[in-house]
Amino acid sequence: MKLRVFCLVAFSMLMGVISAQKLTLNKRVGANWKSSEVSMKNKPNGIIYRLREDIQCEDLPRVPEVENLIVMIAEPIDLGWLALYRLPLSDSKYNFVVVLYNHDKKPTQTINLCDISNNRYCEVQDVRWDGENQFLMFNMACPSYASEVKGKGSKLHCYDVAKKRMVWETDWLTSNDIFTFDDQFVYCSYGFTNEKDYLFMLDKFTGKVYSKIPMTKKVEYMELNFKDDKKQLYVVDYDNHLFIYDVVGGSLNAVPKMFTVVYATSSDGFLNLRESPSTSSKILGRLNSKSHDLGNGVLLQNGEQWSRVRIGNTEGYVYTKYMGKQTWFDGKGASVLVARDNINVYSEDFSDSGRMPVFTTLKAGTVIADRFSDEGEYYRLATGHDCLFVKKSDVVVNKKL
Prior knowledge:
By secondary structure, the chain is mostly beta strands. It folds into three domains: about 25-250, Lipocalin (Beta Barrel), CATH 2.40.128.630; about 260-325, Roll (SH3 type barrels); about 335-400, SH3 type barrels (Roll). It has helices spanning about 1-20, 115, and strands at about 20-30, 55, 70-75, 80-85, 95-100, 105-110, 125-130, 135-140, 155-160, 165-170, 180, 185-190, 195-205, 210-215, 220-225, 230-235, 240-250, 260-265, 270-275, 285-290, 295-300, 305-310, 315-320, 325, 335-340, 345, 360, 365-370, 375, 380, 390, 395-400. The chain has a five-stranded mixed β-sheet. A five-stranded antiparallel β-sheet has the order 23-22-21-18-24, with no helix packed on it. Mean pLDDT is about 90; it is low at about 1-20 and about 250-255.
């Protein structure tokens, strides 16, 4: 009897946690919203297009699998570059291939999205990279009315690139057009002329649906935003009406993390990066002392004895006692930069290539700096020598925390 009562209580608590994770409408702004409120960075080619096109590099080398394809996306990621190739829009057939490149623009992996999703009759309208988990997320959307494919289209897929396996996929009619994500959830939508339109919030690790909200018109654009320490999803529909949803649940309303660069303070100039918090654990790399006044690691979790850090693309543990920290936040600045979405932090381009290399990636909501300067399309995080940069379109400038 006691076991039965305990199970019922545990189940009720679990259901309470699950039901608390949802999107709730904060405000319906309508069509009279200010363009400054929404950056449009998640669909730079324009809100009216069903496909995301974002070509930030035009000289990525082709692999044989994409020789006859056109490029739709070429964007920087933590590993280097991600490119999405497809057959020309005029072609009646479909083929979608993602190629991952390192920072030297050398191809490292080629992934045929049609093969891993077993779908050659739908089109990829968006693809996103989650560097922290090595997830490649993409949708296979109905190119026209759902009835033309008997309702079997517009799934969202999550593929683990490191393990080479599909983590999850949604039901049909869950995702077309663009989508976005944070450290816990994926936000997507489905809609088409004379069909039912919905906005979804999914669990990023299982694909479970937490919110399914009916919309009067198809969602054309979405992005995460932060205001007054609150995480919000800004959604623009087909009639150009803006809706603002509060993201409720999980750890999303916890105190935001601070962007912190770390470096070794030991007399020998480095700390071993270990696979687990133990001196007998495998050595994965080194955390070096400052070079040109900048550390080479990023703090993920501060511990009393061991701290978890990321160096390049490798995560591990270093001994906290000999780890130094540097931030660009001292609480005295009038304005604070906060990551609008999952964003890149760039280092200086010393190669004169015209493209800044990615130093690290930050989660949505990360507090970046209150000491920064304006530099064109970027904000500069200054040191005594080498500097870091964030794109203005990637951050929210709050007056205070």
